[in-house]
Amino acid sequence: ERSETNPPGVLGKRLRDSAETVVIGGGCVGVSLAYHLAKAGQKDVVLLEKSELTAGSTWHAAGLTTYYHPGINLKKIHYYSIKLFEQLEAETGQAVGFHQPGSIRLASTPVRVNELKYQMTRTHWHPTPQFLIGPEKIQQLFPLLNMDKVLAGLYNPGDGHIDPYSLTMALAAGARMYGAQIYYPAPVTGLTPTADGRWDVQTPHGTIRANRIVNATGFWARELGQMIGFQHPTIPVHHQYVVTATVPEVKALEAELPVIRDLEGSYYLRQERDGLLFGPYEKEEKMKLQDSWIRDGVPPGFGKELFESDLDRIMDHVERAMEMVPVLKNADIINIVSGPITYTPDLLPMIGPHQGARNYWTAIGFGYGIIHSGGVGKFLSDWIVSGEPPYDLIECDPNRYAHWTSVPHLCAKARESYGFNNVVGYPKEERFAGRPTNRVSGVYELLKDRCSMGFHAGWEQPHYFHKPGDDSGYKPSFRRTNWFGLVGRECKLVMEGVGVIDLSPFGKFNVKGEDSHRLLDRLFANTLPKVRERERAGKSQ
Fold first, then answer.
1. What is 11-96+159-231+344-401's CATH number, 3.30.70.20, 3.40.50.720, 3.40.50.150, 3.50.50.60?
2. What is the structure's pLDDT at 528?
3. Mind spelling out the 3-state secondary structure of 218-236?
4. Residue 124 contacts by C-beta under 8 Å, 6 or more apart in sequence?
5. 227: closest CA among 205, 186, 199, 198?
6. What is the pLDDT of residues 358-407, one digit of tens each?
7. How far apart are CA 398 and CA 531, in angstroms?
8. Which CATH architecture fits 435-527?
């Protein structure tokens, strides 16, 4: 590390010559990975940070922590993170500022109540405590709410918020305690692969030979990827939150308020000391992308800076928050934070080894890096140390994107994903921005007006076909949908007759060699059809 007495840009100690793993990026995710690798016993773990720890998106984050996730696999990430945060101070001696007053997702329409009931059916996959509660219990937990429109809530005890800076410093203290080396300021200036699959990581202070490298550079991820020929589909989004001065009604409370998420109002709100903090997610037509960073790169020196705030852009949400929590109407705003957070096209991070470069791993694209940091550090550490991921996290595979993920597609999907933060989360959801990509099959034009298309790995693939008079179109529901009968008709047709399916999105493997059929017979559930001698003779010519 650089000591306080060293001039800027000068390291306080000599850079290592070699490392088992070099983690690039000193935000909460990168530092968590260094901590977990070192704790798992890996020797020679090095973290390189270009300016100072938490620079980028970590330092200004609102710090929300929640067990909840609408999916199933990522709940494991959230669960591990919270359990880690609960014991990190005792382990490292570093305070983390962790508050656990619980959280409530508010439903103010019948459809939202159905959404909460749907999520309750999925919660039993995990040990996470989660309850569907009524208005009386909600008001008991959050007495400052206007209950006129509140119908129900999804309550997660143990949720809350943490100080991102303190969290990162505690993880860094733990990483050092277990033997990891953290260097800053140490910007990576070049990455050179070696013939044996390792990397030469160049910095102004020297070069480190690494067995593997991990890109955990936040909104610099695209630039680091470009050093080795990748165009990672990540883009910074402007996210704002508002902090108030002391609110007398809040100060008078005996217990800290739970975090609330007003799903219809599309904002979160939590207690901040004796005041309130709330942050909205604007609709896609109002939100702002920092797309110039895609074109021109991140400005040199940008690290702990913020964007200019724009209260007008979020005023609709401010008014909704004032209606739901009336004490806000008389609260003085003391700060509006507007900073960059990183989005991928589908809002999920890119976690794991990246195809196309040996021993290159990514931990990038985190729109919710604080709650993901602990679990992702553990997940990647287990994968790196044991050679296998500890559980399925296929939705975060960095290789789900490819050349079809163009900049216009990235921008369109990031806008859509930000605007979709609090929309109703239906099963089998389809999102239509940025489609189609350049991945369309030869039958796309023929079929597109005769079927409902789904999106798979960049491809448009028919989900079901419709005839004149059918109830067609995308009509999601928590109950039986309009496609149920149409899909049933197709199933009957294939059972009794013949059907053709477009498998363009599926991976294709060419298997060659004398024993290829024996290998495939072992791999597949069924045996391959016998090749007639005449056909085999023809193919061998």
1. 3.50.50.60
2. 87
3. HHHHHHHHHCCCCCCCCEE
4. none
5. 199
6. 999 999 999 999 999 999 999 999 999 999 999 999 999 999 999 999 99
7. 38
8. 2-Layer Sandwich (3.30)
- Give the strand pairing for 64-65 and 103-107: unpaired
The pair of structure tokens assigned to 496 is 């009794």
- Angle at which helices 369-386 and 28-39 cross, to 10°: 30
Run of H or E including 485: helix 484-496
* Low pLDDT (below 70) residues in the chain: 1-12, 532-541
pLDDT at 540: 44
CA–CA dist 529, 382 (Å, integer): 41
Name residue 76's amino acid: K
**With 0-12 CB in 10 A as exposed, 13-18 as middle and 19+ as buried, what is 122?**
middle
Nearest to 62 by CA among 350, 253, 235, 268: 268
DSSP assignment of 161-217 equals E--HHHHHHHHHHHHHHTT-EEESS----EEEE-TTS-EEEEETTEEEEEEEEEE--
Token readout for 413 is: 């999907």
Distances 453 to 315, 436, 472, 489 between C-alpha atoms, Å: 36, 10, 11, 17
- pLDDT score at 284: 86
Residue 536 DSSP symbol: H
Return the pLDDT at 419: 85
Cα 29 from chain centroid (whole Å): 11
Domain 103-157+235-340 sits in CATH 3.30.9.10: yes
The closest alpha carbon to 29, from 344, 365, 266, belongs to: 365
Q: Whose CA is closest to 348, among 366, 362, 361?
A: 366
- 29-50 burial: b if 16+ Cβ within 10 Å, else e: bbbbbbbbbbbeebebbbbbbb
> 206-215 and 235-244 as β-strands: parallel, antiparallel, unpaired?
unpaired
Task: Indicate the helix (H) or strand (E) that contains 36.
Answer: helix 28-39
Structure tokens given for 261: 């998420």
